[in-house]
Amino acid sequence: MKDNNRLHAVARVAWAVCVSKPTLLCLFLLFTLCVAGRAQTIPAKERFSSGEEVHYEMYFKWGLLMPRAGQATLSIRDTRYEGESACHYRLLFRTQGMFEKVFPMRDTIDCYFSPAMLLLRSEKRVNENDYYLIDDLKFSYADGKTTAHSHRYTPSRTKIDTMIVSEQYMFDMLGATMYLRSLDWDRMKNGDEFPFHVVIGRDRINISFRYTGQAIVERSETLKYRTRHFYIDIYDDVFTQSKAAAEIWIGDDENHIPVKIRAKLKIGAAEVYYKSSKGLRYPLTSRVVIPKR
Length: 293
Fold this sequence. Notes:
Blueprint (H helix, E strand, L loop, with lengths): L1 H17 L2 H8 L24 E9 L6 E14 L2 E12 L1 H6 L2 E9 L5 E10 L2 E12 L2 E9 L4 E9 L3 E2 L3 H8 L10 E8 L2 E18 L2 E12 L11 E6 L6 E7 L4 E10 L8 E3 L4
Parallel strand pairs: 9-10
Antiparallel strand pairs: 1-2, 1-15, 2-3, 3-4, 4-5, 5-6, 6-7, 7-8, 10-11, 11-12, 12-13, 12-16, 13-14, 14-15
């Protein structure tokens, strides 16, 4: 009974953290170099095929406790956007376990990319404990700059309606993960940094991926993943530190899918783990299964 009460207390404290924009940002950065005067097309299409679907589990870690907080699915489909061929990149997130009982969440993000992988639109729909909110971002490109029209609204009123401009790569939370998959590791060395902006509401958040080389992620005594490790520097006051506010491990094979994410928060940490996938373009050779003796 004492353990159950403690777990309830963890969930009640943590839900406010887990529904905040930076925690979801860390999840979506699963889950961007800029050259002035060039549109921010990203060479990610060689990493996936239409029909890819990847599943993740999210945990909230506080001391010795690590309850499961939710599950997420990333999927990619060919589609049409405003009458033209496009790529539809979707994230579905829902809470689980104690978090589902304390503060249920159902979040969806839909991104639309051009065939050249230029981000055109992002629509995030939030259903958090019967509170409904939509973040609609429309991206345009001119004179070496990226402009995002950010429209946030509820069923009853508009909360934000503004324009945000950047001379760097600029994405929504989900679109940034597609950029990360496009990076060419053969041309990178330890310490290389990749700065970009993420739009959340009226905020333009400064973020940078920082490459540190190869690493092994152990999921059990018989299951490991070969990965490439990045620190994520996030300049937002919700994090206890800006440098290395989060970490991400990308599977070291041609798919470049996130295997693990860890975000430090003011209260505990959020951790995300790869669970399963289907429709990958390449074999998941980063997964190493060790036979039992």
